[in-house]
Design a protein that fits this description.
This protein is an alpha+beta fold. It is 45% helix and 12% strand. The protein contains 6 helices and 4 strands. It has helices at 13-25, 50-55, 69-79, 83-90, 95-107, 109-115; strands spanning 4-8, 31-35, 58-60, 66-68. It has a 4-stranded mixed beta sheet, with helices on one face. Helix 3 (69-79) packs antiparallel against helix 4. InterPro entries: DCC1-like, DCC1_Trx. This is Thiol-disulfide oxidoreductase DCC family protein.
Length: 129
């Protein structure tokens, strides 16, 4: 299963903060964080579509299977030892609610970042919709 390649939006301040936290938690080095906004990142070279990557977080496991959204977070949290959080996100009765909430978050992540007062790497408030 490991390592997990985590494809995330590094231009989103909230997303970047989460990935920095996950990197600190990743004591067994099970995650390979890949910023889809990096200049040298090419989605097609990875066999992925940039529009899909931009829509929500993706994870590719060591076997090549791609996971998206909440199921991807479940794998990530298990990988870094946050199993309680992973179990809550994987609860069958709540999974559809988490997925709906995550899709809403992902669609509005730049607005939420600005609302929370987070800034991008240039120190500017994020204004992308």
């Amino acid at each position: 299963m490991y390592p997990l390649e985590v494809f995330y939006d590094g231009a989103c301040p909230l997303c970047a903060k989460e990935m920095a936290w996950l990197a600190q938690q990743d004591r067994q080095q099970r995650l390979r964080l890949r910023d889809i906004q990096a200049v040298d990142f090419d989605a097609s070279a990875e066999g992925l579509e940039s529009s899909a990557l931009d829509a929500q977080l993706h994870v590719r496991d060591a076997k090549g299977q791609v996971w998206q959204g909440v199921p991807a977070f479940v794998l990530i949290y298990r990988a870094v030892g946050r199993t309680s959080l992973a179990r809550v996100l994987a609860l069958p009765g709540l999974a559809p609610l988490w997925q709906w909430g995550y899709r809403h978050f992902a669609r509005h992540r730049y607005r939420l970042s600005a609302w929370l007062g987070l800034t991008d790497s240039c120190g500017q408030q994020c204004r992308r919709d």
